[in-house]
Design a protein that fits this description.
CATH architecture of the largest domain: 3-Layer(aba) Sandwich
Strand content: 5-15%
Number of helices: 9
Distance between the termini: 12 Å
Strand order of the largest sheet: 3-2-1-4-5-6
Shape: globular
Radius of gyration: 17 Å
Order of helices and strands: EHHHHHEHEHEHEEH
CATH class of the largest domain: Alpha Beta
Length: about 220
Amino acid sequence: MTKVKDMAVIFDMDGVIVDTTEGHYLSFVQMGKEIGYEMSRERFKFIFGMHNNDIFPLLLGHKLSQSECDKLSNRKEELFRNIIRGNVSALPGVIKLIPALKKAGFKIALGTSTAPENVELVLTDLKLMPYFDGMATAIDVVRGKPDPQVFLIAAKRVGIEPSQCVVIEDAVAGVQAALSAGMKAIGVTINHSREALSAAHFIVDSLEEVTPDDFYKLITS
């Protein structure tokens, strides 16, 4: 019988732990004014959750070198941190669920396409950093979601087999990435409808709706 200590819960960050959607939107708007592209709400909805390496060539309409992508990404994330600093708040259920999962024996990991500096700012402000056993961020991957790379790296860093992991995601591409990794997926309807997230094994409107026992049952089912 699989024990909880051999299981992991992998959290996405934006839209799962915190809702930084507006901060990202505003930072892309500012970035557009600097480098010459238009950012509408509809366009932002399409790109949100993608890796910056994929976003900027799309926005600018041509290929970019890795160094060009890195430079643009660093500037965009700097703008983002300036916008959210001092205004970070956890989504409902997060502050209770993460310690509860840790207490139950699960490994806690993060799998996000955001920059490590953003992760540090958010998790430090929320006092959640000590609960995480490992993480994979934007600097660890070359392929963004729906590619499963970020979740596979996160699982490896906490020493848990993909089949024993549950991913919590708010994005369609994130759910697809979790399934491609051979993991179970919980979809949270922060930014997408239940219909859009229908490929997930379990869908909730808030993390207030789940307990550690739900994760155990999902993995062992």
